[in-house]
Amino acid sequence: MKWLSYRHQGQLDYGILTTENKIISAKTIFSNPPATLLDFIKEKPAIPELKGISGEIALSDVEIQIPFMPPNNIIAIGKNYYNHVLEMGSKEDVPEHILVFTKSANSLLPHNGKIELHQNLTAQLDYEGELAVIIGEEVRDISEKEALSAVFGFTILNDVTARDLQKKHKQFFLGKSLDASCPIGPYVLENDASKEVIFHIETKVNGEVRQSDSTDKFIFNLARIISDLSKGHTLFPGDIIATGTPSGVGKGMTPPTFLQDGDTVEITIDKIGTLTNQVRKS
C-alpha cells in the first residue's frame, strides 16, 4: 500500500494511491481520520475495506507534498555501499560500524520541488539517491531480529550535498542541510514484510543513468542499522533514516561533475516510484 500527502483544491490532505493512479483520501477512508500522515503512523487506526469506495481523486489533479515533517532531524548513514566508499576514497575507508550523521528537517523538499543551487555558497552541489526508512514504533534497544517490525514504510530520498562545504567544515551537517536540498517522496510504501525487502535504486541526471545498484549491497543491512541506532537512543514514529547512497555520485566521476542550474534529477526505486526534481538558482 502506498501513501502520499498532497494539496487538492487548496486543501492539504493525505491518502492511499491506487494501482490506477487514483487517490483515496483519508477523509474518505476514516470517519474521523488522523490529521496528517504522521498522525496516522502514530495512531495506527485500522483501515476499513476499501473496495467500492467512491470519490477517488486523479493523481494528476493534486500537488504532491513532502510525506510529513518528521519529529526529529533526518538520521543518515554514510559509506554504506562498498563501491561508493571506493569512489570517495579507498578500501581502508570501509567502516567497521555504522557512520551516522543528521540532516536538518528544514531541508526537506517535495517531489517536483526545486532544488536550490545555492550558487553563492557552493560550487559542488551533488546528488545521492537513497532508500529512506520510516520508523513506525517507539523503540529503544531493539534487537536485529525484531528491528524490521519497527518499520512503517519506505520512501525515496535525495541526500543532496555541498561537497565543498562538507570538506570546509570537516563534518556533514552544514553541507547536507541547506534549504530545499533534500527531496523526499513522492510515496511511502507501507512495510508488510517480516523479512528485509531488496530494492533497486537508479538515479538519472538529465536522462543519463548515474547510479544503479540494489540494497542487497548494503555494508550494514536495515536490521543492523535500526538496532544500532536504537541502542541507548529512542527512535520515534516518523523518524526518517536515509540508508546510504550507491556509487555514481558526481564527485566520483572523472572529472567530478556537479549539479547545474536547470538539471533534472530522477531517482527511481522499484516498488516505490520516481522522485523528480529540477535544480534552480537561488
TrEMBL record:
GO terms for molecular function: acetylpyruvate hydrolase activity; isomerase activity; metal ion binding. GO terms for biological process: carboxylic acid metabolic process. Residues 74-280 form the Fumarylacetoacetase-like C-terminal domain. Keywords: Hydrolase, Metal-binding. SUPFAM superfamilies: FAH. The keyword Metal-binding applies. It comes from the Bacteria. It holds the Pfam family FAA_hydrolase. Belongs to the FAH family. This is Fumarylacetoacetate hydrolase family protein. It comes from Listeria swaminathanii.
